[in-house]
Every structure is written in structure tokens, then in C-alpha cells.
């Protein structure tokens, strides 16, 4: 038994070393750094809770919190709705696996496209001048001046770009969940004269409710921590119209070189993410108990 344990630890050691170097140590440093006024001079001077007090006194904090809530809330609701819609269409209504697989493969294209390439495509499509693809289509119908779409509708643009990336994962999860529903439930509903909407409302949604909760929490985790699409398309602008909490931490740390302040913003985000992870764990436990 001791030899087996020794072998297990030996195989785990490289993994544990990598996790410690790239995850544990940076996490500990972030916590320590959040209580310092570390900046470009790289002098570690502890300032206790001044960074956190500064966050609450910053007049932009409320705007950034509002942007974050709008971004995360709208993206979650829209993504989960589209996930459910596409899953029902491709699994319940379209019985041919071939067509269903083709549609899901198309949905996966934005997800597997590198973030930089994906964002550049959005910028190219929405170019402010007459050369932009969207402006070309728009000007072919309307006699007007070209529109700077990203400047005029920044939050809507980053929401659309983000939602398109996130659709595929939830759709695949929901499709698998719908396939696992016993066929006799659908047959019994049809015998009782239930319509399609009644079947969706009374059979499909109740059977996949834990999957819906899981995807909603999973999306929340990703949306709170991932700012790459916003950074590349709008960089938080115009002004701070699309500045979200995670992007604010990045800007404070790497643009303004206020590393301690940026770490404090990140630490507050980490606490929110930990709460969501606990909720996700409870949802998964309930699902396993079924």
C-alpha cells in the first residue's frame, strides 16, 4: 500500500509543482499585493485597507458595477434562452442527427476561433467608414452617412460578440440532457393530447432544470472573469461605457501601473467567484442525488 501511495505521489508531483507555481503562488501574491501601494517603482509598502477604501470612494466604481451587472445579466439570460431554444429545435423537433450535428458545428465556430481573430473580424465588419461591411449594407438601403457602430452601440456590440461565443457549449449540454429524458414521457404526453409548448414547459424544462442552473452559474463565472473580447473590441470605451470589473483590474494594474490597487479589485472579484463556485457545487450535488 505504501509503495502504491509513493508511486501516486511521484506521478502527481510534477502536476502539483506546476499548479503551485502558476496558480497558488500568484493567488497568494495577489492577496498580499492588494494590501500594498505597489506601483511601477516596485516598492512593497503595506497600506492596510486603503486600496479597498479607494475602490468605494472612486466615482467610477458605481458605473463599472452597473456595466458589469448589465453585461453579465443580459448575457446570461440571452445565452441560456438561446441555448434552450437551439437545443429543443435540434434535439426534440429535428430528429435527424446529421442536420443537428451540422448546426451545432456551425455554432461552435465562434467558440473555437482565436479571440484576437474573432475580435478583429467584428472590428472589420463594423468599421466606421464606408468600407465596413455593415455600413455597406446599411448605406445600400438608406441614404445617410456611415455610422460608427462600435462608438454608438458599444455595450450592444460586446454583448452580441460575447453571446455568440458562449452559445455552443450550453446548447450541447442541453441537447444531451434532453436526449436522456425517457421517451415514454413524451409518448404519454402525446396520448394525453398535450401540445408541443405543454411538452416543453411540463417535461423538457423540469427535467433539465439543474442543467439550466449549472449553465447559468458557469456563464456567470466566465463572464465575470473574461474581459478579452471587450478589451480587443472597445477597450472599455467610449470612456468607460463598457468597462467591467475584471477589465478595470487589468487597466489599473497594467495601464496605470497601480498594481496594488488592481490586485484589490481582483481580490473582490475572486470573492464573488468563490461564492458562485460554492453555488455551482451545490447544484451539481443536487443533480447527482437525483
TrEMBL record:
Membrane-topology annotation of the record: Multi-pass membrane protein
The UniProt record lists the keyword Membrane: yes
Residue ranges that the Swiss-Prot or TrEMBL entry lists as coiled coil: none
Cellular localization per UniProt: Cell membrane
Source taxon at top rank: Bacteria
Cellular compartments per GO CC: plasma membrane
Transmembrane region(s): 12-35, 69-94, 106-125, 153-178, 214-233, 259-280
Signal sequence, start to end: none
Keywords for the protein's UniProt record, in alphabetical order: Cell membrane, Membrane, Transmembrane, Transmembrane helix, Transport
GO BP: transmembrane transport
UniProt KW rRNA-binding keyword: no
Annotated ranges, domain ABC transmembrane type-1: 65-280
SUPFAM superfamilies to which the protein is assigned, alphabetical: MetI-like
UniProt record similarity statement: Belongs to the binding-protein-dependent transport system permease family.
Name used for this protein in its record: Sugar ABC transporter permease
Taxonomic source organism: Hungatella hathewayi
Amino acid at each position: 500500500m505504501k509503495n502504491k501511495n509513493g508511486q501516486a505521489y511521484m506521478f502527481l508531483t510534477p502536476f502539483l509543482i506546476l499548479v503551485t507555481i502558476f496558480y497558488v503562488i500568484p493567488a497568494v501574491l495577489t492577496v498580499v499585493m492588494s494590501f500594498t501601494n505597489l506601483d511601477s517603482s516596485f516598492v512593497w509598502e503595506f497600506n492596510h485597507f486603503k486600496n479597498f477604501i479607494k475602490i468605494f470612494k472612486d466615482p467610477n466604481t458605481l458605473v463599472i458595477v452597473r456595466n458589469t451587472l448589465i453585461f453579465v445579466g443580459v448575457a446570461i439570460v440571452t445565452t441560456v434562452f438561446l441555448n434552450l431554444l437551439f437545443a429543443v429545435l435540434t434535439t426534440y423537433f429535428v430528429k435527424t442527427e446529421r442536420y443537428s450535428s451540422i448546426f451545432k458545428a456551425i455554432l461552435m465556430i465562434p467558440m473555437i476561433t482565436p479571440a484576437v481573430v474573432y475580435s478583429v473580424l467584428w472590428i472589420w465588419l463594423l468599421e466606421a467608414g464606408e468600407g465596413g461591411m455593415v455600413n455597406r449594407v446599411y448605406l445600400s438601403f438608406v441614404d445617410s452617412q456611415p455610422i460608427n457602430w462600435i462608438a454608438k452601440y458599444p455595450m450592444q456590440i460586446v454583448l452580441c460578440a460575447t453571446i455568440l461565443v458562449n452559445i455552443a457549449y450550453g446548447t450541447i449540454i442541453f441537447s444531451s440532457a434532453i436526449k436522456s429524458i425517457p421517451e415514454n414521457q413524451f409518448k404519454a404526453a402525446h396520448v394525453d393530447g398535450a401540445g408541443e409548448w405543454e411538452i416543453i414547459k411540463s417535461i423538457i424544462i423540469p427535467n433539465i432544470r439543474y442543467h439550466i442552473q449549472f449553465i447559468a452559474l458557469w456563464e456567470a463565472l466566465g463572464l465575470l472573469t473574461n474581459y478579452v473580447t471587450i478589451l480587443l473590441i472597445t477597450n472599455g470605451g467610449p470612456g468607460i461605457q463598457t468597462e467591467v470589473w475584471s477589465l478595470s483590474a487589468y487597466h489599473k494594474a497594467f495601464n496605470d501601473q497601480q498594481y496594488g490597487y488592481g490586485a484589490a479589485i481582483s481580490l473582490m472579484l475572486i470573492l464573488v467567484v468563490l461564492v458562485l463556485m460554492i453555488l455551482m457545487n451545490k447544484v451539481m450535488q443536487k443533480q447527482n442525488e437525483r
